[in-house]
Structures are given as C-alpha cells and as structure tokens.
Amino acid sequence: MTRIGKPAVLLATALLLLVATGCWDRKEIEERTSVVAIALDKHPAGIRVSVQVPIPVKIIGGASGGGGGGQTGVQNVHTFSTSARNITEALMRIQNASNQRLFLGQARLLIISEDVAKAGLRDELDALRRHPEIRRNIWLLVVPGEAHRLLEFSPNLEQIPADYLINIVRSGTEEERIPNITLGQFLINLSNTSRQPVANVLEARRATAQWKGVALFRNDRLVGHFSPGETWVFMQLTQAKHGGTITCSCPAGDSGSFTFTPRQSDLKRRARMENSALSLHLEVTLDGVVNEKNCRMPLDTPEHLRAYEQQVERELERTARSIIRYAQQRKTDVFDLGFYLRAMHPNIWKIQQKHWDEKGFPAAHVTVRYHVRITQRGFEVK
C-alpha cells in the first residue's frame, strides 16, 4: 500500500465509524413510560384498556430509604385506563395522557376479563400480534369479573403489584404446578387446526392473589374452566408435567385421608380405528411421595403400599374421565389429541380432521390408565 493510500483508508474508516454509531436513535430510560401489565375489559364503547406503570422515584427511593420510604403495592405504580372502539385507539388516548412515550416492551402480563374472553379474542389479539413491542413470552391471564381490578389490588410482598402476579405464575411453572401458557403459545394453538388454546385463571382479593386453574377455549371463545386439581390431571395428560399435591381418601374404607405429591411423570398415547370408531388410550406413570397420612393402615408392607397406590390411581382416573367428558361436551380438544393424531397417525387424521371439533373429538372413546409408584413413605411412629 502506498503512503498516500494508507492515510486515505484510515480517514475513510474513521468517517464510517462516525456514521455507523449505534446511539443516533437512543432513547433514555427516563424519557419513556414502561408498561408492566395490560388489562382488557368490555365497555359499551368497545373495549376498556388499562395499563400499569411503575413510578421510578418511589421504587428507587424505597430501595435506599428515601423517596418512597419502602412503600409497597399501588403506591408505587400508576394505572392509566380509558375506553375506545379498539385497543390501538385506547393506547393512543393513554399516550396522550402520559408525559412520556409509552413503551410496551417491558410488559409481562396480559390480563383479560371473562366477558372479553367469552365474546371472542380474535380482534383483540390481532392488535397485540401486530404491535412490534409486545413480546410473545408475556403471561396471558383470564380473571373473573373486571380485569382492571387485578391492577388495583395492593400486595405487601412486592413493590410493584404486577411483579407479585408474575412471580406466582413463574414459580408455579418452574415447579410444574401451573401450565406455562404465554401469549405466543396461545396464538400458536389458536392458529393450529388440531389444537385448542387454554389460559391460566388468576383471582385477586385484597392483598393476595390466587391461581384458580385454567380457562378452556373453543377457537377464540371461552367455554369452560378446570379447577386447580383438574388442571394438574390435565397437565399430566397433555404435557407429562407432574402437577401438584392431591388429597385422597384412605384405602380399605378407613375414615381419613392422605396426601400424595407427584415428583415425576411420563405419558404414553395410543390410537386405533375400528369400524369407523376412534379409540384413544392415555397411560400415565407417576412417581411421588406421601407427605401426610391420617389412615390406620401402615405403609410397612408391599401389599399396604400397593393399596395406597391403587387409591391414588382411582382418584386420578376418576378426575381424568370427568375432565375429558367435560371437554368433549364443549367440543374443545384441549388435550392435544388431534395434534397427536396429526403427528403420529396421519392416516387416521385425514379421516377425522374435517369434522374433528364437531364430531371426531366429542365422539372419540378415550380411556385413561394411571400407574402410581410411591417412592418415599416417610417415617411413622409405632
């Protein structure tokens, strides 16, 4: 390289570095209003949209002993709420009432009232699907009553109420007590002709909130619910997740109860067609422990141990038959049986897919068999 060429290259490189900087469109965090939760309610005008935003000076001050002085709950947040014909128009009205630009990229909760869910979510989800800042891993929740009420309760355990709700769902999914249902997963199931979506249900009262199971959808409309106990069996039959602790009656007619906590779960499925009749068999293996026992029968022999295992099997199989029948009556295949047929039995699916929701799934003969193994019995005083 010549002496004239080398300085020219360095000068050109320096000019390129100046125009290639990544800070030309930066936006300081103090110059935007970060939304942590969004709530949707029915309204005569169309839709009511509420958003919760933290008040930074109170949160920062609470951590250092000044400013907010360690306040918790609704004192540390502000909730904007307005009604409009659609979500985009409502967000624009909220933007007009905010002193900074609204930023939805930090939102972790999408809370939907039962009334909105029963009317259908397709139009509402269309706006959120198109918004570039809405993340697909946002938690989707359905609440009884009005959704904005969930943004107004004041927990004592977190500075930001939305964080309290997020941690309920996050810890539950990590422990396999609560299904991991995000907006992205809901949209995937909604667009899949062999699946139906579900959503977690949360209810807040005063300073606490509680997970209440899952909401069942047929396409984009809410059609039913599973309780927490039913949801754990639902998770075992669909996701091979072990679920939570169940309470069973004592074996041999004893008037007491014992609790069983699953630790590991496995799921196997089979399908066959006979004379145009579809039969599906689900087989679940559960390993778990006995946490508490108020029964006279001890756990000291293999025969007694097997009696307790069979009692758990009967309880779970009874619940499984009940929730499958419940879903068939509402014509919603939330158990992913159609998805299983599509993937593993394409010849059967070709016959069933055209009328799966209306006739195939409701008429299918579905059987469930549990195999329970108690791996830890605990100590007993004799």
Give a brief description:
It comes from Calditerricola satsumensis. Helices cover 35% and strands 30% of the residues.
* Helix share, percent: 25-40%
* Number of beta-strand segments: 14
Number of domains: 2
Poorly predicted tracts of residues: 62-69
Biggest sheet strand order reads 4-3-2-6-7-8-9-10
Query: Rounded to an integer, what's the Rg over CA atoms?
Result: 27 Å
Structural class: alpha/beta
Order of SSEs, N→C? HEEEHEHEEHHEHHEEEHEEEHHHHE
Share of β-strand residues: 25-35%
Main beta sheet: 8 strands, mixed
Measured distance between first and last alpha carbons: 93 Å
- Report mean pLDDT, rounded to a whole number: 88
The helix tally amounts to: 12
Anisotropy-based shape:
globular
Fold blueprint:
Elements (H helix, E strand, L loop, with lengths): L4 H15 L12 E3 L2 E7 L2 E9 L1 H9 L12 E8 L2 H11 L3 E3 L5 E5 H6 L2 H9 L8 E5 L17 H14 L8 H9 L6 E8 L2 E11 L2 E6 L1 H11 L7 E4 L7 E18 L2 E17 L8 H28 L7 H8 L1 H7 L3 H8 L1 E12 L6
Parallel strand pairs: 1-5, 2-6, 6-7, 7-8, 13-14
Antiparallel strand pairs: 2-3, 3-4, 8-9, 9-10, 11-12, 12-13
What does it look like?
By secondary structure, the protein is an alpha/beta fold. It folds into 2 domains: 29-223, no CATH class; 227-376, Nutrient germinant receptor protein C, domain 3 (GMP Synthetase, Chain A, domain 3, 2-Layer Sandwich). It is built from 12 helices and 14 strands. The chain has helices spanning 5-19, 56-64, 87-97, 114-119, 122-130, 161-174, 183-191, 228-238, 302-329, 337-344, 346-352, 356-363, and strands spanning 32-34, 37-43, 46-54, 77-84, 101-103, 109-113, 139-143, 198-205, 208-218, 221-226, 246-249, 257-274, 277-293, 365-376. It has an 8-stranded mixed sheet. Strands 11-12-13-14 form a 4-stranded mixed sheet, sandwiched between helices. A two-stranded parallel ribbon has the order 1-5. A hairpin with a 2-residue loop joins strand 9 (208-218) and strand 10. The longest helix is centred in the last third of the chain and has 28 residues, at 302-329. It is globular, with a radius of gyration of 27 Å. The relative contact order is 0.09. The model is unreliable at 62-69 (pLDDT under 50). It holds the Pfam family Spore_GerAC. One of its GO terms (cellular component) is membrane. Keywords: Germination, Lipoprotein, Membrane, Palmitate, Signal. Its main location: membrane.
